[in-house]
Design brief:
Structural class: alpha/beta
CATH topology of the largest domain: D-Maltodextrin-Binding Protein, domain 2
Number of domains: 2
Helix content: 25-40%
CATH superfamily of the largest domain: Periplasmic binding protein-like II
């Protein structure tokens, strides 16, 4: 879903990447500059940025450095000469890499008191939760109505012959939602069962593509493709409704949210070691966890706020169905086995 987003922010010239945070400090008379490293899908309203800058006499600079994995790797590799003051966008599939790389300074924001404990995966408060999204199967309602076929109720249903050739997924080696869906199958079927499940999907003619855009906008029948089931997000049906070219009364797609069929991605922010703007960095982290920023998230990055005091858009309230029981794989297990699991999946599905 994040790849749908067209950022409303100006991009930072790459030349700034060579500058350490201390070189970005303005004179006492002018605004203080704060550099925030993010992934490419980061987006926030200009009004929200302007409010923080006005409150803190600040000039925010956003440095976008690829997808979640790429940005995390850049942050770790540049730990001795940090490229920014703050890093936002590492998620629970890469969290242990960032923590093991020792790139963050601990900060227990007072706003953490408002955030449910389930989102706080780092007890040392080096990485603080900002938002979450659930990777789930989505399906095209019209296709199943036209073919007088019940949509799949859970992951197991996709092994049935009536769903042969109907599913498209993303390669977990090249796609964040693809990796999240692989983790959903590992959490649901266990390490001893997930490869057998994928063997069944391969036998049932699952199609694998490299990225979310191809799966959603080329292969998915909602947009003219031939596959009526696609790996996407629980929020996709509501977002599709928001951006429909013609007004619609209800979503035309739906998500499978049965127990253990989705994987929850949680994104974090942390203050990078070496910052010369510690006070301002703390203020930005607090701002990201505040209802002002949190309420801006759903229609900017199509993710959910972790702060329950943030207001959700009406379309989310009216049409969104969230999974209540997501598949669970710990960050430590992901760190220890990520590459092993991807390689085993590749040997099983793409051989």
């Amino acid at each position: 879903m994040k790849l749908l987003i067209k950022s409303l922010l100006f991009l930072v010239p790459l030349g700034l990447a060579a500058c350490a945070p201390e070189s970005q400090t303005a004179s006492p008379e002018g605004p203080r500059k704060l550099t925030v490293m993010t992934h490419d899908s980061f987006a926030v309203s200009e009004e929200v940025v302007a409010e923080f800058e006005a409150q803190n006499n600040a000039d925010l600079v956003f440095l976008k450095l690829g997808d979640t994995g790429e940005a995390t790797n850049r942050a770790v590799l540049s730990a001795d000469a940090p490229l920014a003051d703050v890093f936002y966008g590492v998620d629970n599939t890469f969290l242990s890499r960032a923590l093991d790389g020792d790139i963050f300074e601990p900060y227990a924001s007072p706003l953490l008191a408002e955030i449910p404990d389930e989102f706080e995966l780092d007890p040392q408060h080096r990485a603080l939760p900002v938002d979450y999204g659930d990777v789930c199967l989505n399906y095209d309602l019209a296709y199943f109505e036209d073919h007088d076929l019940a949509p799949p109720a859970d992951l197991e249903a996709l092994l049935n012959p009536e769903y042969r050739g109907l599913l498209v997924v993303q390669n977990p080696a090249t796609s964040s939602p693809g990796l999240a869906f692989l983790l959903a199958t590992i959490g649901h079927f266990g390490e001893d069962g997930y490869l057998g499940y994928w063997e069944g999907l391969a036998a049932n003619e699952v199609k694998v593509v490299n990225d979310w855009e191809t799966s959603f906008y080329t292969e998915f029948s909602r947009w003219g493709g031939e596959r009526p089931i696609v790996v996407s997000y629980a929020s996709s049906p509501a977002v599709d409704l928001i951006f429909a070219e013609e007004p619609m009364d209800a979503p035309v797609t739906a998500a499978v949210v049965s127990a253990g069929s989705c994987f929850r991605q949680i994104e974090f922010v942390g203050i990078l070691k070496g910052t010369q703007q510690r006070e301002l960095a703390e203020a930005w982290v607090d701002f990201m966890l505040s209802p002002i920023f949190q309420g801006d998230l759903p229609l900017q990055m199509f993710v959910f706020p972790v702060n329950p005091n943030a207001q959700l858009p009406t379309v989310y309230v009216d049409f969104l169905v969230e999974p209540q029981d997501t598949a669970v794989v710990s960050p430590a297990d992901i760190a220890a086995h990520r590459e092993e699991w991807i390689q085993a999946w590749t040997d099983t599905v793409l051989r």
